[in-house]
Amino acid sequence: MEKFIKHSGTAVPLRRSNVDTDQIIPAVYLKRITKSGFEDGLFAAWRNDPAFELNQPQYKSATILVAGPDFGTGSSREHAVWALQNYGFKVVLSSRFADIFRGNSQKAGLLTVILPQDEIEKIWLEIESKPETTITVDLDSKTVSYAGTTIAFAIDDYTRWRLMEGLDDIGLTFTKIDQVSNFEEKRASFKPKTLPIR
Amino acid sequence: MGKTLAEKIWAEHVVSSTAGEPDLLYIDLHLIHEVTSPQAFDGLRLADRKVRRPDLTIATEDHNVPTLNIDKPIADPVSKLQVDTLRKNCAEFGVRIHSLGDVEQGIVHVVGPQLGITQPGMTIVCGDSHTSTHGAFGALAFGIGTSEVEHVLATQTLPLIRPKTMAINVDGNLKPGVTSKDIILAVIAKIGTGGGQGYVLEYRGSAIRALSMEARMTICNMSIEAGARAGLIAPDQTTFDYVKGKPHAPSGADWDLALAYWRTLVTDNDATFDKEIYLNADDLAPFVTWGTNPGQGLPLSESVPNPADFTNPEDRGAAERALEYMDLKPGTPLKSIKVDTVFLGSCTNGRIEDLRSAAEVIKGKKIASSLRLLVVPGSARVRLQAESEGLDKVFLDAGAEWRSAGCSMCLGMNPDQLKPGERAASTSNRNFEGRQGKGGRTHLVSPLVAAATALKGTLSSPADL
């Protein structure tokens, strides 16, 4: 995973709540067997509308998505995270993320930052009136800054460290694999197995 | 102080716990399907890793597969490639798979319970958010993303932060015609699509105890629609009777050991939940969604709400957008809404009891000429069972289509899709924009409401017939 320490870029407002993962990437786009090439499916239904924020020229090069509450609800598809990354997003800001989406984003290296809804509203106003505004998201200092404003955000230390070091979660677990083996030796005999087939 | 059921199962599965880090949790069962696994297997190959426990892993083909002509090659080449990739990966890594045409094939959350590999006290994961279904057995079961699928394949564990616990207490008696689907739709309407974020839900109370296993699965299945990764119901005699005798259920001395352990899987009397919610089953009525998220639901007897009546600006905006998408006007009685398609199936309501209850309403009658009724059993076994009971004839004689098993129109990944502007009453779990086909409009309902709607042509309950 690529390290994430700090990112500066312009941002696009998405003034909608409950943007579910079927909206982020519809099921028909989930048939690829790679982690790339999902950018065309990102917000596929809405992209047909010229008024949709992502289609507006002033937001074309945005790398930060400023979303409404409950972003990423629904399906567990990590393809939603890949689609956002494939399109060029590095950060999503929202007041609430769905659990699975947030977990997936933290595994794949897309930074999801929780800010209070009133701060999100202020950022929306700023980037709607001045789309060229640069927003800096700093994981080291745990802050979001733009136009003279700095907002602190919370993230657990473990996830922050893993993102900043770009560490592979599976590799970290392998450092504890002896404990996994010990656990397996003590598992109850009645626990089901899928093999042999009965 | 006592522990909640979720806390007990969690504690039993902690491999390693370090302050300031997530707990490393052991996973008892990993279910796999074609959509969320190919990139995970690729990751294993790239890192030269194996599947640690093929004997705790099982795959089935469900999301992508056609429900017609299943003896022919899959027509869509992209779908075919994804299914073929799963078959190749399972062969390469030694994972058991039930492919299209196999009698054990079906929706992954229908297959697990019917094989008896879903049991109380387990941790169960799958790259699918409706894994919460298995919580009906008193298992801690939740959906994961593809990175986590790879993690479980490689290590049989997951690093996880312990969730908070919420009790959903449902006491009283359901009225005739009211089902567990109506309970969960009412719960989601009450707490909202984000209400369960960060929590494991435990459904409790006399109305839950009175439900069959299949009805309990419907409730736990939709926990994710309230934002909760997992939903649980403590196992009881209903659970034990259901598991006993299933192919992978414990037997002999193991059964006694298992049963003794399962009986400990209850929330202690002195345990406290982080949050508690109360519903009275006597007050519940058949429910239907009017909007584009599962929290936008109302009793069928009511009318489409007016967005102006929502005080919260986010809810108001969401309602405005939903009504525009759904092409509905405020004040329209829900029962006057005409539908074009009725979908009976999915991991929410594609089990044998669902088909039986719908067939009972439909038996000897004809569906409205203005619509199509698609009946898609949740698994090949469910289909066979239904056929042995003559349910296929009931549906076919009424003018319905009787299909083979899969996720089908729940998410429209296979050819079973709504056309733009088409309106459906669906026993599935999500009414998101375009979920069942681009431009399609979905009203979530119970199997009983689906059946009555199919006969009448407008959203209806059996009492309206």
UniProtKB/TrEMBL annotation, chain A:
What keyword terms does UniProt attach to this protein?
Amino-acid biosynthesis, Branched-chain amino acid biosynthesis, Leucine biosynthesis, Lyase
Its family? Belongs to the LeuD family. LeuD type 1 subfamily.
UniProt xrefs under HAMAP family: LeuD_type1
Report the function annotation for this chain.
Catalyzes the isomerization between 2-isopropylmalate and 3-isopropylmalate, via the formation of 2-isopropylmaleate.
Q: In which pathway does it act?
A: Amino-acid biosynthesis; L-leucine biosynthesis; L-leucine from 3-methyl-2-oxobutanoate: step 2/4
Give the top-level enzyme category.
Answer: lyase
Of the GO CC terms on this record, one is:
3-isopropylmalate dehydratase complex
Q: Which organism is it from?
A: freshwater metagenome
GO biological process assignments: L-leucine biosynthetic process
Mention any Pfam family matching this sequence. Aconitase_C
| EC number per UniProt | 4.2.1.33
Task: Report a single Gene Ontology molecular function.
Answer: 3-isopropylmalate dehydratase activity
Q: What is the lineage of its organism?
A: unclassified sequences, metagenomes, ecological metagenomes
The protein's name in its UniProt record: 3-isopropylmalate dehydratase
Q: Which reaction does it catalyse?
A: (2R,3S)-3-isopropylmalate = (2S)-2-isopropylmalate
Give residue ranges for domain Aconitase A/isopropylmalate dehydratase small subunit swivel: 1-117
Assembly notes: Heterodimer of LeuC and LeuD.
Automatic annotation (TrEMBL), chain B:
> By its UniProt entry, which Pfam families does this protein fall under?
Aconitase
The broad enzyme category this protein falls into is: lyase
Q: Identify a single GO molecular function assigned to this protein.
A: 3-isopropylmalate dehydratase activity
Pathway of action: Amino-acid biosynthesis; L-leucine biosynthesis; L-leucine from 3-methyl-2-oxobutanoate: step 2/4
One Gene Ontology term from the biological process aspect of the record:
L-leucine biosynthetic process
- The answer on whether this UniProt entry bears the keyword Translocase reads no
UniProt domain Aconitase/3-isopropylmalate dehydratase large subunit alpha/beta/alpha: residue ranges:
7-457
| Catalyzed reactions per annotation | (2R,3S)-3-isopropylmalate = (2S)-2-isopropylmalate
- Per UniProt, which keywords does this protein have? 4Fe-4S, Amino-acid biosynthesis, Branched-chain amino acid biosynthesis, Iron, Iron-sulfur, Leucine biosynthesis, Lyase, Metal-binding
Q: Which InterPro entries match?
A: 3-IsopropMal_deHydase_lsu (IPR004430), Acnase/IPM_dHydase_lsu_aba_1/3 (IPR015931), Acoase/IPM_deHydtase_lsu_aba (IPR001030), Aconitase_4Fe-4S_BS (IPR018136), Aconitase_4Fe-4S_dom (IPR036008), IPM_dehydratase_rel_enz (IPR050067), IPMI_cat (IPR033941)
The Enzyme Commission number assigned here is 4.2.1.33
As for family, the record states: Belongs to the aconitase/IPM isomerase family.
Relate the protein's function as given in its record. Answer: Catalyzes the isomerization between 2-isopropylmalate and 3-isopropylmalate, via the formation of 2-isopropylmaleate.
The protein depicted here goes by the name 3-isopropylmalate dehydratase
Organism of origin is freshwater metagenome
Lineage, uppermost ranks: unclassified sequences, metagenomes, ecological metagenomes
